[in-house]
Design a protein that fits this description.
By secondary structure, the protein is an alpha/beta fold. The chain has helices at about 50-70, 75-90, 90-100, 105-130, 160-175, 190-200, 215-225, 240-250, 275-280, 305-315, 335-350, 380-385, 400-410, 425-435, 465-470, and strands at about 5-10, 10-15, 20, 25, 30-35, 40-50, 135-140, 140-150, 155, 180-185, 210, 230-235, 255-260, 265, 295-300, 355-360, 370-375, 390-400, 415, 415-420, 440, 455, 460, 475-480. The chain has 15 helices and 24 strands. The strands form seven sheets. Strands 16-17-18-15-14-20-21 form a seven-stranded mixed beta sheet, with helices on both faces. It has a six-stranded mixed beta sheet with strand order 11-10-9-12-13-23, with helices on both faces. Helix 3 (about 90-100) packs across helix 4 (about 105-130) and helix 9 (about 275-280) crosses helix 10 (about 305-315). The structure holds nicotinamide-adenine-dinucleotide.
């Protein structure tokens, strides 16, 4: 591979260029990448791709597809396992780059999220290898279903948890036999570049995994408009999902959109209130920049005061600080523009007559916004209905289970929900009645990778996870043979 300029990010060398056809390729222009931990210090000047880079990357992916899709599943699986091994070897470097680049707590990166990246590759290596083609007799014939690799896939990721999300979306595409062009978000582009190096080191043939850096409206739009692309896998905001959906429709290309969330956290009086309050306070971690977060607290009126007292104590114990410090429990926000967006949400809520119970202001000297709790004047308040994506929770009460479900289902989103109850029957009833892609009861974030993952309503289109992602990345063919 040709030498390319590298930025030293916390002492880790990271290429700032694209990776196209197995080679590092410089951008004609660059964009600045800064750290939420020290905004005054530039981390890197990263390649800013446009139409030319997009065309070249898709061309390389077409060539890479020709080689990769012809390999046996076991050969592809072996390569994916080598990527997983390398991720594990570089765990600490990747965790540090990710923390410096986008701000999430180093502890959770080091101990959890990078390891999940390796698991994503291992899981899909196993899935690719283990897959048996469905086969059955019918009306004097044998039916067999073949999964044909679909072609080059474009993967577009958001700035939050970029490494984990990129691996979650890239691994099934590769396992299905597709080549990939990954376009990470411009606010956190660096860990994807480390991943690109690891795919080369793992021996993936040139063009099978390509990385293009740049701005969404420029290179992202060019990639999704390219008619040679056969799948688009997107995670991000509803606004971008609409644009990508239009581009996909123009070329009749299947796309998945994992979009935003406005999840309820429902607290019934019969639950372990301390556990529920701890879970609610945990939603502030990573400054609430988590799509699955339960940001609408719906609390049975009879226990509102007791719950609020427990939540206040746990919120007061949070430590806003440098994400590299293990004592820190709330990370800074990713970017000053995002901090300003969150601040504007709270300011509008205040002006509209919602009650700020605590927080409601930024910290000076860092990109932190204080953990905030708001009691809305009405359920149709903007702060209840719109995704804030910051450390802002709302608190509403309900009198009956039916009212709790009605409130839970009252936004246009439907990604996730969290329920706290001591009753198994209620857990079953409420879990089934809530409109969401996933409902956790008395727990959060635990999920087997074979389970479907995705949202209802404004939260997205399609399902990832397990067979769902492999089906998405394949063209299914039915073979019928007369007996
Ligand atoms: P965003 O939509 O602004 O950007 C996401 C990606 O799309 C970036 O890489 C961006 O460069 C690219 N992009 C922007 N315009 C484009 C265009 N016209 N064509 C092609 N690509 C384009 O989202 P964001 O602000 O980076 O991420 C935050 C959002 O992501 C939140 O809404 C959050 O809930 C959501 N999210 C959802 C999930 C999930 O699994 N459902 C997970 C994480 C984040």
């Amino acid at each position: 591979m040709t030498e390319s300029p590298r930025a030293a990010v916390g002492g880790v060398e990271v290429s700032v260029d694209h990776l196209i056809g197995g080679e590092r390729v410089a951008g004609e222009h660059t964009f600045e990448c800064r750290s939420p931990l020290e905004w005054d210090r530039k981390l890197a000047d990263v390649a800013r791709g446009g139409v030319a880079a997009a065309e070249r990357a898709v061309g390389a992916a077409v060539d890479g597809f020709g080689v990769w899709s012809e390999l046996d599943a076991s050969e592809r699986a072996a390569a994916l396992r080598r990527v997983a091994d390398l991720i594990e070897e570089r765990n600490d470097d990747i965790a540090l780059v990710e923390t410096l680049d986008m701000g999430f707590l180093h502890r959770s990166m080091r101990e959890r999220l990078v390891a999940r990246g390796a698991l994503n590759f291992r899981f899909y290596a196993d899935m690719a290898e283990a897959h048996a083609e469905p086969r059955w007799p019918a009306r004097g014939t044998t039916h067999t279903v073949q999964r044909m690799p679909a072609g080059p896939a474009v993967v577009i990721t958001p700035w939050n948890a970029p490494f984990m999300l990129a691996t979650w979306k890239v691994a099934p595409a590769l396992a299905a036999g597709n080549s990939v062009v990954l376009k990470p978000a411009e606010w956190s582009p660096l860990s994807a570049s480390v991943l690109a190096d690891l795919t080369v080191e793992a021996g993936l043939p040139a063009g099978v995994f390509n990385l293009v850096q740049g701005i969404g409206s420029e290179v992202g739009a060019a990639l999704t408009a390219d008619a040679r692309v056969r799948r688009i896998s997107f995670t991000g905001s509803p606004e971008t999902a609409r644009r990508i959906g239009a581009a996909a429709a123009a070329n009749i290309v299947p796309f998945t959109a994992e979009v935003g969330g406005k999840g309820p956290l429902i607290v019934f009086a019969d639950c372990d209130l301390e556990a529920a309050a701890a879970q609610a306070a945990a939603q502030y971690e990573d400054s609430g920049q988590v799509c699955l977060a339960g940001t609408r607290l719906l609390v049975e009126a009879a226990v509102r005061d007791e719950f609020l007292e427990a939540l206040a104590a746990r919120t007061a114990a949070h430590v806003l600080g440098d994400s590299r410090d293990d004592a820190t429990t709330i990370a800074p926000m990713v970017h000053p523009d995002h901090l300003a967006r969150v601040e504007a949400f709270v300011d509008r809520a205040r002006s509209a007559g919602d009650t700020i119970v605590w927080g409601g202001r930024r910290r000076t000297g860092s990109l932190h916004y204080e953990p905030t709790l708001i009691e809305p004047a009405a359920n149709d308040s903007e702060i209840v209905q719109s995704e804030v994506f910051g450390p802002v929770l709302t608190l509403q009460t309900f009198a009956t289970e039916a009212e709790a479900v009605e409130l839970a289902n009252s936004t246009r989103y439907g990604l996730s929900a969290i329920v706290y109850t001591g009753s198994a029957e209620r857990a079953e009833r409420v879990g089934r009645a809530v409109r969401a892609g996933i409902v956790w009861t008395n727990t959060f974030l635990v999920r087997d990778l074979s389970a479907p993952f995705g949202g209802c309503g404004l939260s997205g289109i399609g399902r990832e996870g397990g067979d769902h992602a492999l089906d998405f990345h394949s063209d299914l063919k039915t073979l019928i043979l007369a007996d």
